[in-house]
Write a structure and sequence with these properties.
Largest sheet of chain A: none
Number of helices of chain B: 6
Largest interface: A-B, 69 and 83 residues
Largest sheet of chain B: none
Distance between the termini of chain A: 51 Å
Shape of chain B: extended
Helix content of chain A: over 70%
Number of helices of chain A: 3
Order of helices and strands of chain B: HHHHHH
Structural class of chain A: mainly alpha
Strand content of chain B: under 5%
Oligomer: heterodimer
Structural class of chain B: mainly alpha
Number of strands of chain A: 0
Shape of chain A: elongated
Chain lengths: 101, 166
């Protein structure tokens, strides 16, 4: 496995996340697309960390911080989803159009 | 790590991603996300960092995926079929994904990276990470802990039931 192979894998994962985030209507499935994109980014960090950088600590710390921020993001997102469900009894992104002008 | 194992992890990552992108039931997309994260943890292991791989399994698969499953059980009636997918939206999403992939693929293939030999084993230890987190990257560490605290408080504030004001 070369650096280019890892970059292509993470690019494919990012594209799949993009497709998932753009095509799904359910808010939870949309969140999963975003999570896939974040993981593609962390795979990129680890690959560059192994093949290009002299001090391998930096990339690992980057990935740990990405994981921590993803946890915070998911907590907030899920609480917003629960709130929306309680108010509208639906989490379909096409139907939540109250703020549409 | 033998080559065949690495290829299995790559296949897990991509199959999980495909499931997450194209499955219709929400539970199947969550399972796809879990499979993809497991494959990624294996790739991290192959890239020389067992600690990050363990954290990926613990926090992502054991924490985040389970939290998403709980939120799904609280918000959707699982017996109902999801609404029919919007064909036009799906076609545009797939097209944009393909355009993005091709554009960046040509860019990656045209770039030459200056590859150096891997760092010695001692530079990869958990002790080095801990030392760097408490000295050079101390500010990042503390900021992250503050962000997590704010996320917990915010999640409780947003999701709790409204009490009538006295």
């Amino acid at each position: 496995m070369t650096l280019h192979a890892y970059l292509l894998i993470s690019l494919a994962l990012f594209s799949l996340g993009l497709i998932g985030a753009l095509s799904h209507r359910n808010l939870i499935a949309l969140l999963i697309g975003v999570e896939l994109m974040m993981n593609a980014a962390s795979l990129n960090f680890m690959a560059f960390n192994r093949y290009v950088v002299t001090d391998p600590t930096v990339g690992q710390i980057f990935v740990l911080i990405i994981i921590g921020l993803a946890a915070a993001e998911v907590a907030i997102f899920l609480s917003i989803i629960l709130r929306l469900y309680r108010a509208y009894h639906d989490i379909d992104s096409e139907k939540l159009t109250e703020l549409k002008g | 790590m033998p080559d065949i194992v690495v290829y299995i992890f790559v296949a897990l990552t991509l199959i999980g991603g495909l499931m997450a992108a194209f499955a219709r039931q929400v539970l199947n997309t969550i399972i796809g996300l879990g499979i993809s994260l497991l494959g990624l943890a294996g790739l991290f292991l192959n890239l020389g960092s067992p600690f990050v791989a363990a954290m990926q399994v613990l926090i992502y698969i054991g924490g985040i995926t389970v939290a998403i499953v709980f939120a799904m059980m609280l918000s959707i009636s699982m017996s109902l079929l999801p609404p029919a997918p919007d064909t036009q939206k799906r076609i545009f999403a797939i097209l944009s994904g393909i355009v993005f992939f091709v554009a960046l693929c040509s860019m990656i293939m045209g770039t030459h990276f200056n590859i150096i030999p891997p760092a010695p084993e001692s530079a990869w230890s958990v002790g080095q990470i801990g030392h760097a987190l408490l000295t050079t990257y101390n500010l990042v560490f503390e900021t992250l802990s503050l962000v997590l605290l704010l996320a917990i408080i915010g999640a409780i504030l947003i999701a709790r039931k409204d009490h009538p004001t006295p």
